[in-house]
Design goal:
- The chain has one domain (about 10-380): Jelly Rolls, CATH 2.60.120.
- It is built from 13 helices and 14 strands.
- It has helices at about 15, 20-40, 55-70, 70-75, 115-125, 140-145, 155-180, 195, 265-270, 315, 330-335, 350-355, 360-375, and strands spanning about 10, 40-45, 90, 100-105, 105-110, 200-205, 215, 220, 230, 240-245, 245-250, 260, 280, 290-295.
- Strands 1-2-12-9-14-6-5-3 form an 8-stranded mixed beta sheet. Strands 8-13-10-11 form a 4-stranded antiparallel beta sheet, with no helix packed on it. A two-stranded parallel ribbon has the order 4-7.
- Helix 3 crosses helix 7 (about 155-180).
- The longest helix has 26 residues, at about 155-180.
- The protein binds 2-oxoglutaric acid and fe (ii) ion.
- Fe (ii) ion (FE2) binds near residues 222, 224, 229 and 279.
- Fe (ii) ion binds near residues 222, 224, 229 and 279.
- This is Fe2OG dioxygenase domain-containing protein.
- Keywords: Iron, Metal-binding, Oxidoreductase.
- One of its GO terms (molecular function) is oxidoreductase activity.
Length: about 375
Amino acid sequence: MAASLAIPTIDITALLNSSSSTTDKQRVAVELLNAFTTYGVFYITSPSHPLFTTSNTNQVLDATKRLFDLDAAQKAQIPKIQPGGFTRGYVPIGGESGSATKELKEGFSYGYEWPAEALKAKQADDSLNALQGPNAWPAQASLDQLDQGHKDSFKGTLQEFYLHVCDIAKGLLKGISLALALPEDELAKYCTTSETISFMRLFHYLPYSDQGHTAQIGSSAHTDWGFLTLILSPSKTVGLQLFHDNKWQDVPSRDNSLVINGGDYLSLLTGGKLISPFHRVVSNGQEERYSMCCFYYPDYNAKIPLLVQEEIRGQAASGNYSLLRDQRDEEAKHDEAASPAAKDGQDARSVATKLLNGDINFGDYIISKWTQVYRKGGAY
Ligand SMILES: O=C(O)CCC(=O)C(=O)O
Ligand SMILES: [Fe+2]
């Protein structure tokens, strides 16, 4: 097993209460700055918040397991995610990869639950952006089965979990703003409608025996593209790893806490000062692993202004950002015509330059990213 790092756990309570003193918030901001500039990965907790309780973790884990325990025919009824950025529904094994390696996981992706009337009105006047839309829940008969004999509803549990995690993300934005010596509400300006385009992904990783992690992997080495990733992983077995000091090192889950990863967007905003960590998910060859990951995005229309002046954008762009890298598999890279990243005669690299230059917004860009990691070969 790889060595373990001294990754801090930060109590973010002061960022979640409107009555907190500036001193208390500043104290958390200092810890965040330290964690973001050392690893880009850390744990957060807040003992008084319902999210960080064993009973909540068990409830969310139980709902997740129930879903993946559905039989193949029921899973086949759940709409599968499609290329194109708006990812809702079932992710079949092999249906996505950030590299040419097969990722041995299945997933379920959901996000903001629009009130029916609001959704209808927005669909009628065509005012939804391309990352907004309805969730793709299992069929009603499957939902009934998922709820049978359980006091907590499957859908209700997951909806509440999503809202709680988004609240935590909003709290973190305050702390990160302070960490950057910016007004507390500065970063929230880039995330005014984040809750409606961000989403949660439930993952079920399957064990594989290749401990070189080359033939198969849980999640290929990558950085996350958005603002923040918030991960609940009750599995105690090895899984998430961080590339640090030139080697892969375990980031084991801790009770009553979430793992936070800085995203590429946040890192680029800060000229690379806050790290978007290079990470992957591996199997120990024996156990299954479950995780629930919220990918918190900036607004669809967000650009990437440089908020921290002490470093230049050229330096930032030289970092290892998956956001700026072509993640299609090798075969697709040779088939430029079939690649949306290549539209208008642009290759993935020059589209990334457009993003950095502010000529394309985050939402339009991220759609091409999702198409890069979509894999046609997914099977149940
Ligand atoms: O499952 C995890 O713990 C992390 C997954 C991940 O890194 C990702 O999907 O971007
Ligand atoms: Fe990730």
